[in-house]
Amino acid sequence: MNRIKKISYSCLSVMLVTTIFTSASFAEKLPNLPVTFKSGAGTISENVIYAGLGTAGKSWYKLDLNNSIKQWEKMADFPGTQREQAIALELNNDIYIFGGAGKENENSATISALTDVYRYLPKENKWEKVNTRAPYGLVGHTGININNDHAIILGGVNQQIFDGYFVDLNRTKSNEIENKKVISDYFNKPVEGYFFNRNVMEYNAENNQWRLLGVIPFNGTAGSALAYDGNKITLINGEIKPGLRTSEVQTATLKNNQLQWDSVAQKLPAPISNQRQDGLAGAFTGYSMHTLLVAGGANFPGAQEKYAQQHYFAHQGLEKTWHKEIYGFINNQWKVIGELPLPLGYGVTISHNNSLYLIGGETNKGEAVNSVITLTMKDKKLIIE
Fold first, then answer.
1. Does residue 160 register a pLDDT over 50?
2. Fewer CB under 10 Å: which end of the chain, C or N?
3. Which residues of 88-110 are buried (b: 16+ CB within 10 A; e: fewer)?
4. Contact between 321 and 278 (Cβ < 8 Å)
């Protein structure tokens, strides 16, 4: 039997109670990944979870939830260049990998915001490169599947600025003074200087075509979490420039193939640990029993305050901090309703049967982990396995 934490949000304070339930009562505890894994990609197709890339390199794994014995199985290696921050979406029962930060080819000197797209065919355990390019470089982007064969992709860095930074770092790598100046010049700019992507892209897997779905009416973000329920899309926090997050939660309704954004944004409350409302990047998110959950993520506490004082290199001298808080959107407001077993961010969230599986990620000091954590809402309580 599994030992699990039972968290009730029905009272004003959060009570953590340890209790025992049979494994049949809730989602089954899944085994850890065979490798540590962060900044990778993953999705679910026909009750089979797939995950890989990132610090797993070109490795690609599956775990079949239909099997009585749950175990990870290594599948065909990804054929493209190694990459981090790609996203995986199921479209037409195949799995599409969009972009990431990596080299254009094995001979490239620097990494780039990639525009390529790959497709994995689960039934054949086979990869193929799709004859298309995303309209923009895709790093720090996020996406969802709608209508089975359409993807909506939001956010991400500016390809020219991102790529140029790594070109300049490589050019000055033998000169410490020039190299430090490149770093300082890159980070010491206001939000407007980074041109993070505000265009909403739609990709149609059926005809292999892209189109513009509109422009978001707020700052572009990178490393945001994205959730989708019915026709409602929620974009959670993210960087608005390198090292600086926003605490805003933006919502939109998908109607007549257009996104209609709410005029007023919600905000996540400050983490209990430091009471600074600096927002998050790399958080986990999804719905359980129609309750939107947000867990973990990382930031630089104090960066918002420094930026408000026009210190544009806002995270300079600050310590990157990973968080354990789990937020729930309950009765039209955000509440802290529990904690992860460890500070965690930059993993993959899989939604299945009213549970969220938090796969991999990184903890303090950016250390990659191989854990799989399950979050489930039941009878207005959060169950953590």
1. yes
2. N
3. bbbbeebbbbbbbbbbeeeeeee
4. no
In angstroms, the CA 137 to CA 112 distance is: 8
Q: Taking the model in full, what pTM does it have?
A: 0.92
Residues 6+ apart with CB under 8 A from 320: 298, 299, 300, 366
Please, are residues 110 and 118 in contact by the beta-carbon 8 Å criterion? Answer: no
Q: Say if CB 307 and CB 244 are below 8 A apart.
A: yes
End-to-end CA distance of the chain, in Å? 11
* 26 pLDDT more than 70: no
Q: Can you tell me which residue has the tokens 């197709």? A: 45
Residues 6+ apart with CB under 8 A from 180: none
Edge to edge, what strands does the sheet with 101-102 contain?
A: 83-84, 101-102, 112-113
> Residue 142: what residue type?
T
d(CA 42, CA 298) in angstroms, rounded, equals 20
CA distance 141 to 335: 26
Q: Is the pLDDT of residue 380 over 90?
A: no
Q: Give the model confidence (pLDDT) of 281-313 as tens digits.
A: 999 999 999 999 999 999 999 999 999 999 999
Catalytic residue among 239, 325, 362, 385: 239
The pLDDT tens digits for 346-378 are: 999 999 999 999 999 999 999 999 999 999 999
Convert the pLDDT of each residue in 195-208 to its tens digit: 999 999 999 999 99
Coil/strand/helix, residue 197? coil
Find the largest Cα–Cα distance for the chain: 61
Q: If 0-12 CB within 10 Å is exposed, 13-18 middle and 19+ buried, where does residue 256 land?
A: exposed
The pLDDT score that the predictor gives to residue 239 is 98
- For residue 222, which of 233, 237, 206, 201 has the smallest C-alpha distance? 237
What's the burial of 344, exposed, middle or buried (CB within 10 Å: 0-12/13-18/19+)? buried
Q: Residue 97 pairs with which residues in a beta bridge?
A: 88, 118
| Residue 315 identity | H
Tell which wins on pLDDT, 90 or 10. 90
Query: Which are the contacts of 191, defined by CB distance < 8 A and separation ≥ 6?
Result: 219, 240, 241, 244
Supply 315's token pair: 């995270």
Residue 58 region, left (φ>0) first, then alpha (ψ -120 to 50), else beta? alpha
